[in-house]
Amino acid sequence: MSEKRLYGLAAIFDTPEKVVAAARAVAGRGFTKYDSYSSYPIHGLDSAMRLKRTRIPFVTLVAGLSGAVLLVLFTWWTNSVDFPLAIGGKPYFAWPDYVPLMFEMTVLFGAVSTVIALLVVWLKLPRNSHPLHDTEFMKKVSKDKFGICIESDDPGFNETETRRFLEDLGAESVDSVYDEPVDISLKQKVLDPKFIAAIVVVAVVSSATTYLALNKMLLIRPWSSLNAQFKVNPESRSRFYSDGIGMRPPVTGTVARGHLPDPITVSDNLAAAEKYLVNPVLPSPHVMEVGQRDFNTYCSPCHGYFADGNSRLQGQFPSPPSLHTDSLRLAPDGLYYNVITNGFQGVMPSYARQIPRKERWAIVWYIRALQKAQNPNGPEAK
Ligand code: HEC
Predict the structure, then answer these.
(1) Helices 357-374, 333-342: crossing angle, 10 deg rounding
(2) Residue 226 lies in domain
(3) How far is the CA of 303 from the centre of ligand 1 (A)?
(4) Are residues 168 and 203 in the same domain?
């Protein structure tokens, strides 16, 4: 199964001074592929090994800066492009607000990518076994001894010479370490009953906590204080009023802002409405667009896109007459408004609920435009 390959020579030293001296000698002899082992940091060992400064801080710097830049771009985009909200007259992109977030993102990106870089680049993460694992050498250096291991693929490595060199440095023992290909058992760990049981326990505990927190705890004082407000919810009973009804009708004779009724209640007095109602909306490209949109949506199924009575309902509903007749062209705007608002002769339904008042007047403008386009020299042109 296995073909043994010499990984390196592992030497054990019994004092930190000896390992520092040995590391200095190993480095001095030009070895590069070696490492020293100790169960605690030893001052001077890095410089004895002539280690270069690690490059991890660069990863942290780059990742941290990208975090900050991404945050600036994201907040700028959401606040200035995607969803601009004017708050108290401040500029859309008020950057001082985002300084704390920039800080957070710098730390987050920096920290996470440092750990990932450490695991993947320096510890070569997917590799999960190492020839030194499970060796006597490793057990000793993680207890009370110190060690140096020179790898066999170092250019200056020669088994007998290097062994003698290490022994001369005062090593207590020098062992050959072999790199044996390990049979990794690929048994599925996911179906392990213990693992499944742990998942079930976590699921039950976390859902129970969430359920209790949201459904029970929040209803107990003091967390319930947000619920217990002195206000009347819509459609709810109120003991404050003698009739027990929480929602109050408007005071008689008052009108809610923006809900002023038409000057003439058209349904009562049709003739007057047609005579006195004047289109209060001034035509503009926008008004024409709204009129067209609404006409095409609400009217064209029966009246056709050109108001010529070309219904798309294929006889399922009485087809309306063309709106290009002379009498309709001469009819006042109030008639159209009245028909849209109240329906017509019990056949055409009222659109008062679907179409706001201003849009009804926009439709009237659009019908006028359709009429002129169909017949530029019609009676009203004279
Ligand atoms: C469900 C089909 C239908 C829809 C939708 C519809 N109408 Fe009508 N409309 C009719 C019918 C049918 C008549 C003719 C009724 C009659 O002559 O008895 C009519 C008549 C009219 C008249 C003529 C009134 C007259 O004095 O001759 C006008 C103006 C009119 N509709 C405008 C509109 C406008 C504007 C819309 C869109 C808001 C609209 N209609 C949506 C079916 C419809």
Answers:
(1) 130
(2) 187-249
(3) 7
(4) no
